[in-house]
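Lab channel / #folding
Pinned by the channel admin:
"Please post every new chain as: sequence first, then the structure tokens as a reply. Keep commentary short and put observations after the output so the thread stays searchable."

First post following the new format, from NK:
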Amino acid sequence: MFRRIAITTTALALVAGATLTTQSTPAEAAKGWQVGVGIAGGLAAGAIIGSALAQPRYHAPPRAYYPGPVYRPAPAPVYYRPAPWSPAWYNYCSHKYRSFNPNTGYFLAYSGQYKFCR
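Reply from TO:
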């Protein structure tokens, strides 16, 4: 899009410069070289003006305000463990640990020690 605008602006400036500088009286028009010099001068002036108009304009982006992040504390973890020696406790421990002994309440850990199921 910018390229199309730059080419259009440059072409318009070239035509305007050539038109403005080639206006001469009929007596001057009889001398053909003056018309050529006028056209060349107009094209040069149009090229300078057109390139000045077609330059990109850099603007600083607007400064945006973004509020900082809001840090909220994590909710406290809630652990619902069944009370020891209850039917729910037996069910939980026997499903969680294959080595659970319901008579003692202990299970065999990977370290080789027996631990109480909590």
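NK: The two ends are 71 Å apart (CA to CA).
TO: also worth noting, The CA atoms of residues 83 and 89 lie 6 Å apart.
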